[in-house]
Amino acid sequence: MSNGSRVLTTSYRWRLRELMAQSGYHTATALHAALNNRGVALSQSQVCRIVSGTPERVSLTLVVGLCSALACSPSDLVSIESPAAQTGNYPDGRILRDDTGTHDPAARCAEAADHLQQVSRHLHAANEKARQFHATIDQIGVPLVADALETVNVARY
After folding, report:
1. Is the torsion defined by CA of 80, 85, 87, 93 positive or negative?
2. Are 137 and 146 contacting, i.e. CB atoms less than 8 angstroms apart?
3. How many angstroms separate the CA atoms of 66 and 51, rounded?
4. Is 55 left (phi over 0), alpha (psi -120 to 50) or beta?
5. Is 92 helix (H, G, I), strand (E, B) or coil?
6. Cβ contact 25:82 at 8 Å
C-alpha cells in the first residue's frame, strides 16, 4: 500500500478432524453420509479434501451441515489467530519485548526453562548461606541477633 499502512493477515486453523473424532466420525465416508442426510450434496472426493486439508473457501451450506452433523458452532470449526498474536504485538501496535531473539515457541520455552534452573540454583545457594548464617548465630549464642532476625520474619531453614 502506498500510504505506509501495513497489511495484516489473519491465519486460521481448520479443526474438522478434531471435531470429527470428538463426534465419533472416524472416516470421511461416515461424514459424507451424515452430510448427505442433511441435504449437503458433496462428492466423496470433496469431503475427503475438506477432511484431509484446510479449505480456503467453504459454502455456508457446508458450514451449517458440518455444524449440524458435529453438534458444534462455526467458531468450533475454525479457530482464528489474530494479527496481534501472529506478530507478537499488542493490539494497539506496541511491540512486545523479545529478549530471546526468537519467536519460536519451543526455543523460547527451552530458554525459559534454562533461566528457571539458573534462578533455582541461585535460590538454593542463597538458602544454604542463610542456613549457615543461622547456624553460626546459634553457635556463638547471640540471642539478640537471632531475635532481631526473627522479628523481621527472616525464615530459618
Report:
1. positive
2. yes
3. 11
4. beta
5. coil
6. no
CA 21 to chain centre: 21
Q: What is the pLDDT of residues 28-81, one digit of tens each?
A: 999 999 999 999 999 999 999 999 999 988 999 999 999 999 999 998 998 877
Q: Residue 69, class by beta-carbon neighbours within 10 Å (0-12 exposed, 13-18 middle, 19+ buried)? A: buried
CA distance 45 to 43: 5
Rounded to an integer, what distance in angstroms lies between the CA atom of residue 79 and that of residue 19?
12
| One-letter amino acid of 31 | L
* Lowest-pLDDT choice from 61-65, 102-106, 110-114, 121-125: 102-106
Measuring CA to CA, which residue among 91, 93, 61, 89 is closest to residue 74? 61
DSSP H or E stretch at residue 79: strand 78-81
Q: Which helix (H) or strand (E) holds 12?
A: strand 11-14
Question: Hey, what amino acid is at 127?
Answer: N
User: Comparing C-alpha atoms, which of 138, 129, 16 is closest to residue 72?
Assistant: 16
pTM over 0.70: no
